[in-house]
Write a structure and sequence with these properties.
- The complex is a heterodimer.
- In chain A, 34% of the residues lie in helices and 22% in strands.
- By secondary structure, chain A is an alpha/beta fold.
- By secondary structure, chain B is of the alpha+beta class.
- Chain B has a four-stranded mixed β-sheet with strand order 4-1-7-8, with no helix packed on it.
- The longest helix of chain B is centred in the middle third of the chain and has 33 residues, at 85-117.
- The chains are: A alpha/beta, B alpha+beta.
Chain lengths: 145, 235
């Protein structure tokens, strides 16, 4: 299924973080940004966040920024999940689902890759060993641009 | 990113004709002017080299070969210096001039847009500044004009830091008719001892003919070890 936002400017947002400081997407123009939408009820999300964390450790110095966006209705539940996830990037809260709607999230986990110009370039709608390889390929291509 | 001259808002989120017009015009100018100004042919499948470079460009992977006519020239003995260097410099200068023109045009369009959307006689602008900030870490500000929410702005650590360094943010820009109005601001953040802290401040003001400028000021009250919130009317 084609993702309508590919090639479009990534919708800007500012969200509270479950742990740490607030984040605004437009502050990261010039960096490759990875957004991962997650929920505390989604089992593969935890595995995917750990995999993303590994890629961030590798490519952070090349200009990679990463945010996890929780879509839980209950912020307390999302905070608890965020604390236990132990990732080095910010896990943000979107209980009103305004950001999830603007990014047309229709599956969890869902990962959106944004290039240095702020354009949505790729989306991954699931998590598996194959999709992780694809993600790394796409990420390297964006970082090399 | 915190823009000290223009703060995004929910009210601003709706696409505005003027806001869309500026980048479009600039884009059109770039697309339309660049090839003609540079003397390049219209972009096509083969338009990969500029005319200046076309005569001297060697196939990829090959060094430029000297022709028999070139053999006696000084350039033939120094292949490391490309023959088109002066032309390239001229081209670079032209590109820089064009970019400057685009930036100037964008600035003019921005001013024009502001003048059209927020005429001086109805304009109201609200600024925010933070002084010291020892007893309050700013998280968000909600602004209500005449009981209607006009903005709810969330601050990132970078933005809060910029404010602490003396930055003044234009939080809201809008229009108001002449008469009495009320501005209410709610400040959310962390107060003394890292506790959640929410305070409000309000100001009744008279909007006359001419622009109105108001400032939300967050200050430290050292004597009470508490933050202080104030709305100032710039007369």
């Amino acid at each position: 299924m084609r993702y309508a936002l590919i090639g479009q400017s990534a919708p800007d947002f500012a969200l509270h973080a479950a742990v740490g400081g607030n984040a605004r997407l437009s502050e990261h123009r010039g960096e490759v940004v990875v957004l991962s939408f997650w929920s505390s009820r989604c089992t593969p999300c935890r595995t995917q966040l750990a995999a993303l964390n590994r890629s961030l450790a590798t490519y952070h110095s090349a200009g990679l920024a990463m945010f996890g966006i929780g879509v839980d209705d209950d912020p307390a539940q999302a905070r608890e999940f965020a604390r236990s996830a132990s990732v080095s990037f910010a896990l943000l809260l979107d209980p009103a689902k305004g950001v999830s709607r603007s990014y047309q999230v229709d599956n969890l986990p869902m990962t959106v890759l944004i290039d240095r110009n702020g354009t949505v370039r790729d989306v991954l709608r699931d998590y598996s060993a194959e999709s992780e390889q694809l993600y790394l390929q796409q990420l390297r291509a964006l970082l090399n641009e | 990113m915190l823009q000290m001259t223009r703060a995004p808002s929910r009210a601003d989120a709706a696409p505005r004709r003027g806001a869309l017009l500026a980048p479009l015009l600039v884009g059109a100018l770039l697309a339309g002017l660049a090839p003609t100004a540079l003397g390049a042919p219209p972009a096509g499948p083969d338009a990969t080299t500029t005319p200046a470079a076309a005569g001297t460009t060697a196939p990829p992977g090959e060094a430029p070969a000297a022709t028999p006519a070139d053999a006696g020239s000084p350039l033939a003995t120094s292949p490391a210096v490309p023959e088109s260097s002066p032309d390239t410099r001229g081209l670079d200068q032209e590109i820089q001039d064009l970019k400057k023109d685009v930036v100037d045009l964008n600035k003019d369009l921005f001013i024009l847009e502001e003048e059209l959307l927020f005429p001086a006689n109805t304009q109201v602008a609200v600024f925010l500044s933070v002084d010291v900030g020892q007893f309050f870490a700013l998280d968000s500000v909600q602004l209500k004009l005449d009981r209607k929410e006009v903005i709810n702005y969330l601050y990132t650590p970078r933005e809060a830091e910029a404010l602490l360094k003396g930055g003044v943010q234009r939080l809201y820009l809008g229009n108001l008719k002449v008469g009495a109005h009320e501005l209410v601001a709610f400040f959310n953040g962390k107060g003394p001892n890292q506790r959640a802290y929410k305070r409000g401040a309000s100001l009744r003001f008279e909007k006359g003919v001419g622009a109105k400028y108001l400032e939300l000021k967050i200050d430290d009250r050292q004597r009470k070890l508490q933050p202080e919130f104030e709305i100032k009317d710039w007369e």
